[in-house]
Design goal:
By secondary structure, the protein is α/β, with parallel strands linked by helices. 43% of the residues lie in helices and 24% in strands. A 7-stranded mixed sheet has the order 3-2-1-4-5-7-6, sandwiched between helices.
Length: 210
């Protein structure tokens, strides 16, 4: 039986029963692994569909790049937004491959397990972001990983020319944006978060050093 959160997710993001089932299986694996390796804060497991699934799905919806082939998610952790992007892409954009970068070996093992068991088009790189050869990503994401200035350094390295970065940021996003603009030149659009009235998703392109 589909729960209220699952039903509203299916309606809001226009996804099939198969996608909801994949997300449910992901939730089961997340709850199974989390006590051992702390993939997400235990308190947030009371609202997985809101705090994690919906929060991640909005990033996929913002991408609006039907021709994209490579999505790279940096510091993928428990798979947000990367695994949710891969699950949605399986239905909506099957040619999209999602690269999950996670240096923690145990978290990387979790990401590989979910990708394999759900039949997702993913690959996991268990290395430091700085050590990986440029990924040439069409789309780059990172959630709760680093200040914006550092994320732009990663974007300059791993985005292909003309690519787009999507970075969700919390209540202090304006301060981070102002600080980053001292060292970097970039185009930015700010999208209000659907899960947090004080948060935003920064859509960034044309990154270069000042």
């Amino acid at each position: 039986m589909t729960g209220a959160n699952e039903a509203s997710f299916a309606e809001d993001f226009n996804v099939s029963r198969e996608t909801i089932e994949r997300l449910h299986r992901y939730e089961v694996l997340l709850r199974k692994w989390n006590p051992a390796i702390n993939l997400v804060s235990p308190q947030t497991l009371t609202d997985v569909w809101g705090r994690h699934f919906r929060d991640s799905a909005q990033i996929f919806d913002l991408a609006k790049t039907p021709d994209a082939k490579i999505w790279a998610d940096l510091g993928a952790g428990g798979g947000f937004p990367g695994l949710v992007v891969a699950i949605l892409a399986a239905e909506k954009q099957p040619s999209l491959s999602v690269t999950l970068v996670e240096s923690d070996q145990r978290k990387a093992a979790f990401l590989m397990t979910v990708g394999r068991e759900l039949g997702l088009h993913t690959r996991v790189l268990s290395q430091r972001i700085e050590a990986i050869p440029p990924l040439g990503a069409d789309i780059l994401s990172a959630r709760a990983l680093a200040p914006l200035s550092k994320l732009l350094e990663f974007a300059e390295r791993h985005l292909k020319p003309g690519g787009t970065a999507l970075f969700p940021k919390g209540a202090k996003w304006r301060e981070e944006l102002s600080e980053a603009q001292k060292s970097w030149s970039f185009d930015v659009a700010c999208h209000a978060s659907v899960t947090d009235s004080e948060a935003t998703v920064l859509e960034i392109s044309g990154v270069s050093r000042v």
